[in-house]
Amino acid sequence: MRLVPFVAAVGIALTPATAAPRTETAVLAGGCFWGMEAVFEHVKGVKDVVSGFAGGSASDATYDRVSTEGTGHAEAVKITYDPAQVSYAQLLQVYFTVAHDPTQVNRQGPDAGPSYRSAIFPQSADQSRFARAFIARLGSAHFFKAPIATKIESGKFFPAEAYHQDYARKNPFAPYILVNDKPKVAALKRKFP
Questions:
Q1: Are residues 76 and 99 in contact, defined by beta-carbon separation less than 8 angstroms?
Q2: H or E element at residue 37
Q3: Per-residue pLDDT reduced to its tens digit, 117-147
Q4: Sign of the CA dihedral with 1 first, then 25, 34, and 164 last
Q5: What range does the domain containing 66 cover?
């Protein structure tokens, strides 16, 4: 994956880890997990993307329960990636510029409610520090016209039901996918060839 001036513009140094493990995990929420999954499945170095839920107070999560907006969970994706091929910074770059609109509060496109919020669920103290610094730099650089709504949260990740996994790949001509998610994948391919 090639870096574009985005990361340099906000002044974040990218230094590869010297003894990085084979894979690491990132959990991100940004609207419907179908589109988030579709985007990150196309990022070089990403090994697996699982649609699911994170950040709620309930001890488990299902689509039916989360969609009532009573569990506190957000639709999210769990990304397993090879840090030798793609960095956490690059994943955040894709997240903030292609995968969703980080200025939207509790909504993305046609989907509204807290379960569609923009949130990062760090999987380590380093990810938490980095994500906070990343958001602060974007904000101080006024990279977006509106304030960044993305929050840093904690919470367990729960995989969604099987029919949600790889939804965009399995249903490429579904109207929702054509209107909301295919343009994101196309933008990824344009911005990160």
A1: no
A2: helix 33-40
A3: 999 999 999 999 999 999 999 999 999 999 9
A4: positive
A5: 5-162
For residue 193, tell me if it sits in a domain: no
| Identity of the amino acid at 161 | E
Structural contact between residues 87 and 103, judged by C-beta atoms closer than 8 angstroms: no
Q: The domain spanning residue 74 has which CATH number?
A: 3.30.1060.10
CB contact set of 118 (below 8 Å; sequence gap of 6+): 29, 30, 31, 100, 101, 102, 104, 105, 108, 149, 150, 151
Number of domains in the chain: 1
Catalytic residue annotation: 32
169 lies in some domain: no
| pTM higher than 0.85 | yes
pLDDT band of 60, cuts 50, 70, 90: confident
Task: Tell me the DSSP string of 134-181.
Answer: HHHHHHHTT-SSS----EE----EEEPPGGGTTHHHH-TT-HHIIIII
| pLDDT surpassing 70 at residue 33 | yes
Q: How long, in residues, is the chain?
A: 193
Q: How far is CA 118 from the centre of its chain?
A: 8
Residue-wise pLDDT for 2-21, tens only, equals 554 555 555 555 555 555 46
Cα–Cα distances (Å) from 184 to 62, 87, 105, 106, in that order, read 26, 20, 19, 19
Nearest to 185 by CA among 100, 121, 110, 103: 100
1's tokens: 């994956």
